[in-house]
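Support request from a user on the community tier.

User writes: "When I paste my structure tokens into the form, the page sometimes reloads and wipes my input. The last time it worked, I copied everything first. Here is what I submitted, just in case something in the input itself triggers the reload:"
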């Protein structure tokens, strides 16, 4: 089983791109609570 590059827990499936948080793969929970909000925040700052 793969390990989330953010929280270190095992996840099932393909995982998610963890950028811009780091260069690894992350679980669905970290994607929803950390990665997506960070992407939105980065996008807002660019405008």
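"...and here is what came back when it finally went through:"
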């Amino acid at each position: 089983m793969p390990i989330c590059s953010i929280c270190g827990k095992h996840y099932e499936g393909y995982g998610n791109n963890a950028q811009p948080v780091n260069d690894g793969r992350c679980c669905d929970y970290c994607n929803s609570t950390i990665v997506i909000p960070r992407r939105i925040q980065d996008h807002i700052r660019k405008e």
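Agent notes: The reload is a front-end session timeout and is unrelated to the input. The mean pLDDT is 97. The first helix runs from residue 28 to 46. Escalated to web team.
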